[in-house]
C-alpha cells in the first residue's frame, strides 16, 4: 500500500475542476474549512483509469507508473495505491485522495481481487470508528471511500461476470458510479446499446448503484434555494445527468491545438476526439456529477455505508467501540507496566 502527498495549486490558465463554483456546497461550514474526499477507481488494467483521473483533476497523479508485463500480471494480486493532492480553487480547498487498484482482474482467480478492496474500505471505516470513539474527535481525518468509479470495458456486450460480482460485493459499502471506458471506440449506436444493456443487467442482478438525490428531498428552504441556483447554473447537464448513466467517457493526457486553442483530446487520422466536448462523450457530465454531488456522496457514505458497517461491527463484537478502546488502552498500560 502506498500513500503519496503533494500540493497542487492551479493558476487560472490551467482551467478549473469546478468545485469552487458550487453555491450549495460553498455556503456550508465544512467546505470553508476544506473538503476531504476519497475517490476509488476500479476496473481492469488498460481501461484508461489513470488517464481519466488525470484529465478529471487536471493534474498528473501518476507521473511515472510502472506497467507490468503479462507474465507478471498472472501472478499479481490487487494492490492499493492512495495518492493525495490538495487542490485549491478560489479559496476553497479540496483534499482529494484517489485510491487506485492496479492488478484488478489480472489474476486468474478474480475472487482475490475483491478481498483486498473490501479490506481497504473496511479498514478506513474501522479507523474512522476508532477515531470517532477517541478523545480527540474534532480533528478526525476522513479517509473513508466516498465514491467508486467502476470502469466497464467498451469491448464486451455488457457486464462481465467479474463486473457483476464486484458490484454486488461492494454496493453495500461504497457509492458505485459505473462508467464505460474508452467511449471513443464505440459508435453512437453502439454506445446507446451498451448503456441500455448495462442498465438492464444492473437491475436484473439487483445491483445498487449510486442514486442521484431528489432535488426536492427533505432539505431546508435555504438548501432548496441553493439547489435551484445550482441547477440553473448547471443546466442542462444536471437535469439530464440521470439519462447518461453509465457515463461513457474518454480521457487523454495530451493537449492538442484545435482552432488556435489548446484542448485535451485524442488525435486520430480522421480527427480529434475532445475530452471536454459534451458532443463527443460524457466526461463533463461525469465531472459535473462528481463535483456537484460530493457532499451528497459524503452524506450517503456516512448515513448508509458507515452506519451499516458500524452496526454490523457492534453486533459482531457485542461491545460499543468506546469500551473496546478503553479495553485496548488498559491492556496496553498493563503491558507497558510489565515491560518496566
Ligand atoms: P489504466 O491501466 O486503467 O490506468 O489505463 P491507462 O490510463 O494507463 O491507459 C491505458 C492505455 O489506454 C494508454 O495507452 C492510454 O493512452 C489509453 N487510453 C486511455 N484513455 C483512453 C480513451 O479514453 N480512449 C482510448 N482509445 N484510449 C485510451
If you had to describe this structure to a student in words, what would you say it looks like?
- This protein has 340 residues and is α/β, with parallel strands linked by helices.
- It has a single domain, classed as P-loop containing nucleotide triphosphate hydrolases (Rossmann fold, 3-Layer(aba) Sandwich), CATH 3.40.50.300.
- It has twelve helices and ten strands.
- It has helices spanning 23-26, 29-33, 49-56, 70-75, 111-133, 161-170, 188-204, 221-234, 237-240, 283-292, 294-317, 321-339, and strands spanning 2-9, 35-42, 81-89, 92-100, 147-152, 176-180, 247-248, 255-258, 261-268, 271-274.
- The strands form two sheets. The chain has a seven-stranded mixed sheet, sandwiched between helices. It has a three-stranded antiparallel sheet with strand order 8-9-10, with no helix packed on it.
- A hairpin with a 2-residue loop joins strand 9 and strand 10 (271-274).
- The longest helix is centred in the last third of the chain and has 24 residues, at 294-317.
- Mean pLDDT is 78; it is low at 1-14 and 233-237.
- Guanosine-5'-diphosphate binds next to helix 3.
Strand content: 15-25%
Span between termini? 34 Å
Q: Per CATH, which architecture?
A: 3-Layer(aba) Sandwich
User: How many separate domains make up the residues?
Assistant: 1
The first-level CATH class is given as Alpha Beta
Question: How is the largest sheet built, in terms of strand order?
Answer: 1-3-4-2-5-6-7
Q: Predict the CATH topology.
A: Rossmann fold
Secondary-structure-derived class: alpha/beta
Ligands in the structure?
Answer: guanosine-5'-diphosphate
- Main sheet? 7 strands, mixed
Distinct helical segment count: 12
Mean pLDDT, all residues: 78
Q: What is the helix/strand order? A: EHHEHHEEHEHEHHHEEEEHHH
- Uncertain residue segments: 1-14, 233-237
Computed over alpha carbons, the radius of gyration is: 21 Å
The number of strands is 10
Shape: globular
Amino acid at each position: 500500500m502506498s500513500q503519496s502527498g503533494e500540493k497542487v495549486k492551479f493558476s487560472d490558465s490551467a482551467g478549473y475542476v469546478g468545485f469552487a463554483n458550487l453555491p450549495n456546497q460553498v455556503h456550508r461550514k465544512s467546505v470553508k474549512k476544506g473538503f476531504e474526499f476519497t475517490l476509488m477507481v476500479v476496473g481492469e488494467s488498460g481501461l484508461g483509469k489513470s488517464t481519466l483521473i488525470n484529465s478529471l483533476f487536471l493534474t498528473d497523479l501518476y507521473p511515472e507508473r510502472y506497467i507490468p508485463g503479462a507474465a507478471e500480471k498472472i501472478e499479481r494480486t490487487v494492490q492499493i495505491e492512495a495518492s493525495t493532492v490538495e487542490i485549491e480553487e478560489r479559496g476553497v480547498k479540496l483534499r482529494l485522495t484517489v485510491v487506485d487498484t492496479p492488478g484488478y482482474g489480472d489474476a486468474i482467480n478474480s475472487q482475490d481481487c475483491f478481498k483486498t478492496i473490501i479490506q481497504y474500505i473496511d479498514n478506513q471505516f474501522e479507523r474512522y470508528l476508532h477515531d470517532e470513539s477517541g478523545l480527540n474527535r474534532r480533528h478526525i481525518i476522513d479517509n473513508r471511500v466516498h465514491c467508486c468509479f467502476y470502469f466497464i470495458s467498451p469491448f464486451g456486450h455488457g457486464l462481465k461476470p467479474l463486473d457483476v460480482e464486484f458490484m454486488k460485493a461492494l454496493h453495500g459499502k461504497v457509492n458505485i458510479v459505473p462508467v464505460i471506458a474508452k467511449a471513443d471506440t464505440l459508435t453512437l449506436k453502439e454506445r446507446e446499446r451498451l448503456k441500455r444493456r448495462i442498465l438492464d443487467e444492473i437491475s436484473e442482478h439487483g445491483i445498487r448503484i449510486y442514486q442521484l438525490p431528489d432535488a426536492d428531498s427533505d432539505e431546508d428552504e435555504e438548501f432548496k434555494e441553493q439547489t435551484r441556483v445550482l441547477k440553473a447554473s448547471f443546466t442542462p447537464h444536471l437535469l439530464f445527468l440521470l439519462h447518461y448513466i453509465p457515463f461513457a467517457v474518454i480521457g487523454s493526457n495530451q493537449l492538442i491545438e484545435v482552432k488556435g486553442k489548446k484542448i485535451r483530446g485524442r488525435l486520430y487520422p480522421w480527427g480529434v476526439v475532445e475530452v471536454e466536448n459534451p458532443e463527443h462523450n460524457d466526461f463533463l457530465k461525469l465531472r459535473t456529477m462528481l463535483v456537484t454531488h460530493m457532499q451528497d456522496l459524503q452524506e450517503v457514505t456516512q448515513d448508509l455505508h458507515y452506519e451499516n458497517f458500524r452496526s454490523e461491527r457492534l453486533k459482531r463484537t457485542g461491545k460499543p467501540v468506546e469500551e473496546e478502546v478503553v479495553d485496548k488502552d488498559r491492556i496496553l498500560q498493563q503491558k507497558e507496566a510489565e515491560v518496566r
